[in-house]
Amino acid sequence: MKKLGLFLVSFCFSLAIFSQSAPLGKDVVNSFSVKMQNLTSLSAKFTFTLENLKEKITDTHEGDIVVKGKKYNLELMGMEAYFDGKTKWQYVKEANEVTISEPTSLDGGFMEDPTKLFKDYEKNFKSKFIGEKVEKGRFIYELELYPIDLKTPYSKLNLKFDKKTLEPVQIKYQGKDGNNYIIKVKVFRSNVPVRDERFTFEPKKHKGIEIVDMR
What we know:
By secondary structure, this protein is an alpha+beta fold. Helices cover about 20% and strands about 45% of the residues.
């Protein structure tokens, strides 16, 4: 009887915690998403890590990104991607080759549409509040997000962002293929002045370039 009483107390306590954390998670992710949606532009320096625990593979690269609305310029792993809202240029400097396309949808993950890192979290995910912690002197919120669209190539997303500024600190995709993708933000600047020319690529400025036009 005593054990049953302890079980019921523990059960009720767990329900109370869950009832508090569930709406809190939704409110927190909504605050972050609203903050990101209201930015006119942003720039960030980050590390991008590919992790496969089964194969014991960890591969990390430095990256830079500038975003303005749907437009972006991404530099990562020896590749430069430019998207002006209609046309996408993917330039590989080592090969001096650019692939030009006009994607009708950008839903293949971070490399296809990096702007998705900063928008629509409350619409596209179910959230679970993990907690608040201190990392390197910063108060951090941590959430687990589960995509509503089950066709996405990842099963879960772990999000950490600064409690005070609501700026992203780390985003981790848990891929269904066994690969995890971890983005750690080193520098984040919001509402930076940026010209639209930043999001276009001029092949004629690169002598001897090979052009693969898929439009």
